[in-house]
Write a structure and sequence with these properties.
425 residues, alpha/beta, Rossmann fold, 2 domains, 8-stranded mixed β-sheet, 5-stranded parallel β-sheet, 33% helix
Length: 425
């Protein structure tokens, strides 16, 4: 992986020598200050740079319009690039290379949005399938969105079936072929495509599609399969022109830019903290609990790379300032939906809506940590939740006091909410 550093998006002067570098990232500083990345993936016969670049000024426009986002350019061999037979691999193998990049070198990014054109969209979906099949839950959780531009999700009817025996590209693009069938079944079973969906059964990856009304290669059913009409954008343009915006007012560019923003802003908070509030007998008891939670928030921000934390008591200094219970519950649940992860701070056994919120966090599939003095103080179902998920979705920290809790949280650093990726972890 190569990195370009600069305030402007510029192509590497030696881009023709970077054929064996699958990914080049463009960032403004080194090391980057951003935790979000957009990766562009070209299609059949495409190129990330040069006069014949697939994307025109699309990456440049996005780099200029979204200063808190880095831009990556992915390159792989297709069409005439496959004439070097010893360097030519099937799309499934390329997906493995791509998946390993997302899992390891790019793990510093909290959100990665993939934008794929044509066969590049299939490669993006194959990458996600590969991560799911490998049990790489942490990497999958960092896929913030998927934008498919003129992507034949069901394959291309115009490609004769017999060519699939002669060409890796034709095999990947074969209509209803083995690869596209396997990818689509995985998505149907394991991926929710709408950012408003939260479920234990599926990973949520917001997905959209752009279709060119003059596209002679990809039919509308193939390009938009599985997506509601509100998640599909039909624009004037051909198979190749829709990814080369003339300016920032171009329909395809402005729509994609808005979708990238939606994907990147899906989580307003890194962590939601639930703690007893009204259950405390008096202000002194509440204020002691609040000071401990505020210390926890400071530790999360300084030691665990959690930049934004929601805690309902952040601005409430006394019990007299509490909101009506029903109103507070509605606002808290909305904040939880907008949070990546969940912490229950429950050092003392008390009647509290925080336990109810812990149950909702499980329903919404949030990685959760319960901080308690004694596990026996938890309701049975919450106590047992840490054993219910092989990927360690829930962990319980037994800590005798707040200082021990802060030390335990600090010890994990940025991996505090990482999933275990095999049963032995």
């Amino acid at each position: 992986m190569q990195t370009m550093v600069g305030e402007r998006f510029t192509e590497p002067t030696n881009w023709t020598e970077l054929g064996e570098e699958p990914l080049v990232t463009h960032q403004r500083t080194s090391p980057t200050k951003n935790d979000k990345l957009v990766i562009f993936v070209h299609g059949l016969g495409g190129s990330r740079y040069g006069n014949s670049t697939t994307w025109g000024r699309f990456p440049q426009f996005l780099f200029e319009d979204m200063p808190d986002v880095d831009v990556g350019m992915y390159q792989y061999r297709t069409l005439f690039g496959r004439l070097r037979i010893t360097r030519s691999v099937a799309l499934e193998k390329e997906a493995q290379v791509f998946a390993d990049l997302v899992r390891d070198p790019l793990r510093g990014y909290k959100s990665v949005v993939l934008i794929g054109h044509s066969m590049g969209g299939l490669l993006c979906k194959a990458l996600i399938q590969r991560l799911l099949e490998a049990g790489s839950r942490n990497a999958v959780s960092r896929i913030g969105g998927l934008i498919l531009m003129a992507t034949p999700q069901l394959g291309v009817l115009r490609i004769p079936a017999f060519l699939s025996f002669l060409s890796y590209d034709a095999r990947a693009l074969r209509a209803h072929g083995e690869l596209v069938t396997r990818i689509n079944r995985t998505f149907e079973d394991r991926v929710a495509l709408d950012e408003g969906v939260f479920t234990l059964r599926k990973v949520t990856i917001p997905t959209w599609a752009v279709e060119g009304v003059y596209d002679l290669w990809v039919d509308p059913l193939s390009s938009g399969i599985g997506l509601a009409s509100s998640r599909r954008k039909v624009v004037r343009g051909s198979h190749t022109s829709i990814v080369k915006p003339a300016d920032k007012q171009a329909d395809a560019y402005s729509w994609v830019r808005e979708r990238v923003y939606i994907a990147m802003q899906r989580f307003k908070y890194d962590v939601f903290i639930a703690a007893a509030m009204a259950g405390h007998e008096g202000d002194a008891e509440y204020q002691q609990s609040r000071s401990e939670v505020l210390a926890l928030i400071d530790t999360l921000k300084t030691k665990c790379n959690c930049k934004s934390v929601f805690y309902a008591g952040s601005t409430i200094t006394s019990k007299a300032e509490f909101e009506p219970e029903a109103l507070a519950l509605v606002s808290d649940l909305q904040a939880m939906r907008e949070s990546r992860s969940f912490i229950l701070y429950y050092p003392t056994k008390l009647p509290s809506s925080a336990l109810y919120e812990a149950g909702w966090a499980l329903i919404l599939g949030k990685p959760s940590i319960y901080i308690v003095r004694d596990k026996a103080g938890l309701p049975f179902l919450l106590n047992d939740a840490s054993q219910a998920f092989l990927e360690r979705r829930v962990r319980v920290f037994e800590c005798p006091d707040i200082n021990r809790a802060l030390a335990e949280v600090s010890s994990y650093g940025g991996d505090l909410f990482s999933y275990a990726e095999n049963a032995g972890d």
